[in-house]
Amino acid sequence: MHFDNEELPVAYLQYTRTKIIILRIGIIILFFLLILSISSGAVSIPPIEVFQTLIGESVSPKWNKIILSIRLPQALTAIVAGAGLGCAGLAMQSILRNPLASPFTFGIAHAAAFGAAFSIIILGSGVMQNSSINPYVIDNPFATTFVAFISCLMATAVILLISHLKRATPEVTVLAGVAIGSLCTAATMFLQLFADDTQLAAVVFWTFGDVSRADWGELAIMAVVTVLSLVYFYYHRWDYNAIDAGDETASSLGVHVARVRIVGMIVVSVITAVIMSFLGIIGFVGLISPHIIRRIVGDDHRFTIPGTIIMGSILLLASDTVGRVIIVPHVVPVAVVTSFLGAPVFLYLLIRGYNR
Length: 356
Known about the structure:
InterPro entries: ABC_transptr_permease_BtuC (IPR000522)
Transmembrane segments: 20-38, 75-96, 108-128, 140-162, 174-195, 216-235, 262-289, 301-319, 331-351
CATH class: Mainly Alpha
Family: Belongs to the binding-protein-dependent transport system permease family. FecCD subfamily.
Organism: Methanospirillum hungatei
Order of helices and strands: HHHHEEHHHHHHHHHH
Radius of gyration: 21 Å
Largest sheet: 2 strands, antiparallel
Function: Required for corrinoid utilization. Probably part of the ABC transporter complex BtuCDF involved in cobalamin (vitamin B12) import. Probably involved in the translocation of the substrate across the membrane.
CATH topology: ABC transporter involved in vitamin B12 uptake, BtuC
Strand order of the largest sheet: 1-2
């Protein structure tokens, strides 16, 4: 291909250079937010102590224990979960060509809630403990996590089966997700009719998504699944760019649209199921992160995917930090904060978009 006076290549290089600079700035912001998050809480830790601990030069056993055992895994969980949920939302919006698509629209979150309620109420994994701080606890968190995960995959299987029978069109997939989500919500409410006070409180406790629930082992599982999923999404970045132009255009460019759509939804379901089965229901991150980053770097998935990974991590880590400092010494679950922050931000983006 020939370009006169190399004008287009220079403009293209400037375009990509600007996007890369923006992504690097996002990474720097995320790093400083990580230091701030670890240093914030009921017990404040000097940021210099946090930095020294992270590089292995701290001399304070007290700070080491708090940082390495509690705050660092919590902060890293927020980063991993934010990246996974944000990119899952972006993938759904791209392959379904629906700006309102998210794990909630797809019904995965509702399926996870049903699975947790089934485990707590039917299998009896919710009990009461003698503690004024947290009187309710999930007696068997592994069973609850497993059942919630299986519920997510079963819901996904039903949705994809319906979608496959109707040639995997975006409209059918979204409507099937809405229907399955409504069915799971109704089933959860039905189970709650037979729950005692302890079980009902345990169900509510689980639905409050909270990144502090994960330990290092669970964080490792989420990290592996998230990284593999993100690699898959980025590998198909050109396919998503083609699908944005329409199914017919994508097909003419050699993209197997139905296969990309179905496999993409399976990957979205797995990553969302893993995160929500460990942490509970966390909303709005997968919905608003892609919209925010599109306004910054545009619609090119070469930059939108890494940008959404960074933005999702920033949003969830910031929300977790706010939840720990807003009502000290109490901790507000991150899902509550994301809902409070996410709803106004999303409404602002919608209004601003329509005004344009």
